[in-house]
């Protein structure tokens, strides 16, 4: 079981390389690598460094963010259904991003885009935690999440429909489903610092979440500062998920599926699950993004379509299992 | 990816920039239907007196009707005729009340002739015909050679054959004066969502006539479709023609400011914008031809 982290890291590295090497232009292996590392071949350098590299980096980072925040939320709420997509964090972040773009704020101040998404994500995490209560009852959590998702989805659609830009309304599906097509290095520079900061904050929560598995009282008696843990969770999730959604749209189910698959492999300890879920999320999103390019190279198939095809049946399976446990 | 601007053009105008390659199956069928209609309509039309109240509900027929109609003959043009991004005749169109192509509002204008495109909201066209209004549908233009037929067709419908013949003569003289005799350079048309146009489109014909090889056509596209940015970059076009972004933000248009595309455009040195003049087969297409001819000559 000690091998799980190195193995996941290897898988992520392989998928990252595959993401760089697969694309509609159909470049050879040798020439792609020469273009990427040595800068040979002008047009190919542009393809590798300006088109494929940002896409691969954002796929890796967004996946890691979603896997990690899913694991952290599930650990804090002790509820297997908590996930940024399901409880409305992603769609609220999308609303923030859309508002920043459509008010023109993001055009004058680029940082406004990730910051607005961060604010949207932060507000929704806070709201969901309040609604679900300290014990994080499954029903309250999911219902609050559904209401929040529906509300922010509706407002996002409204804002895009009212945009003077005729293309904006057609992009509702992008914000709901997510896509990494035609992202550039400027998106990477804008989003990655927030994602790294958020992930660093979430990764510090391991010990506190371990203690929390024994219950709140036990955790507090072990010296865990619960209000602080909660604050770090909110800020870390908001920064990382907000930045990911601002550039890639809301991709669902990664934070649900990955922690569940990995939990048995790490002995169900949150402190070990957190890094594993980050790596697993990165692998899942990179794989999904590669699949979109292999299935429909010219079509900009949305990432969320693929993750939902895997994740939704999984979600139903989880509910089924919980029902049997509760019965 | 579906896009609204293209949908709007679809509703009113030429097939040249329609984004739906998958809809091209409809073209032969529609042409056949249209040809049958034209055969039915033209005989009585020639004998009829010129229509007195004409309403146009298609961007391209709007502009041809404004160019050809007698004073007072044209009652209303479509709302797109006053859209600066679609219409070359915004100022002239402002003098006419706008319609939105709906059967009810058009019928209430009491027209004795409605000019429409073959892709114009077919439901409205059918209803107007059932209500006894004469509707002439004009097919979209896919090549510069088809522009004279288009002008003549609208001229005949309006009973303004002389004005139409005069306009055709001017158009042909203008086109001949813009002839380019240079070996083909590469050019790409690149629009939001990576949309481009290939063979069999008016834009492709403009490029071919001005000494360019269209990257979209070379990539094997017929009609419209998307060209991934990677493939555009590798084609290293010498000129990139893009559209001007709309106000408000959209992800679809972000591709036009992608660093990789900016780099290609910087190397190309020349970038042109495709604007309203490119949309329809009217004499204004000559301005697009002149612009591209200038770009080609600057490459020498």
Explain what this protein looks like in three dimensions.
The complex is a heterodimer of chains A (about 325) and B (about 300). Helix content of chain A is about 75%, strand content about 0%. Chain A is an all-alpha fold and about 325 residues long. Chain A is globular, with a radius of gyration of 19 Å. Chain B has about 300 residues and is α/β, with parallel strands linked by helices. Chain B has helices spanning about 5-10, 25-45, 60-70, 90-95, 105, 120-130, 145-160, 160-175, 200-210, 215-220, 230-235, 250-255, 260-270, 285-300; strands spanning about 55, 75-80, 100, 115, 135-140, 185-190, 195, 210-215, 225, 240, 270-275. Chain B has a 5-stranded parallel β-sheet, sandwiched between helices. In chain B, strands 8-6-10-11 form a 4-stranded parallel β-sheet. In chain B, α4 links the parallel β2 (about 75-80) and β3. The model of chain B is unreliable at about 1-45 (pLDDT under 50). At the A-B interface, α3 of A face α1, α11, α12 and α13 of B. Chain A: InterPro entries: ABC_BtuC-like (IPR037294), ABC_transptr_permease_BtuC (IPR000522). Chain A: It is a multi-pass membrane protein. Chain A: GO terms for molecular function: transmembrane transporter activity. Chain A: Its main location: membrane.
Features of this protein?
heterodimer; A: about 325 residues; mainly alpha; ABC transporter involved in vitamin B12 uptake, BtuC; 15 helices; B: about 300 residues; alpha/beta; Rossmann fold; 2 domains; 5-stranded parallel β-sheet; 4-stranded parallel β-sheet; 14 helices; 11 strands; globular; disordered N terminus; ABC_Transporter_SBP (chain B); ABC_transptr_periplasmic_BD (chain B); signal (chain B)
Number of helices of chain A: 15
Assess the beta-strand content of chain B as a share of residues: 5-15%
N-to-C order of helices and strands of chain A: HHHHHHHHHHHHHHH
Kindly report the CATH topology of the largest domain in chain B: Rossmann fold
- The backbone outline of chain B, from C-alpha atoms, is globular
Outline of chain A: globular
Could you describe the largest sheet of chain B, including whether it forms a barrel? 5 strands, parallel
Write down the Rg of chain A.
19 Å
Total strands of chain A: the figure is: 0
Largest interface, Cβ cutoff 8 Å: A-B, 34 and 36 residues
Structural classification of chain B: alpha/beta
CATH architecture tag of the largest domain in chain B = 3-Layer(aba) Sandwich
End-to-end separation of chain B in angstroms reads: 37 Å
Mean pLDDT level of chain A? 90
Kindly name the structural category of chain A: mainly alpha
Protein name (chain A): ABC transporter permease
Subcellular location (chain A): Cell membrane
Family (chain A): Belongs to the binding-protein-dependent transport system permease family. FecCD subfamily.
Membrane topology (chain A): Multi-pass membrane protein
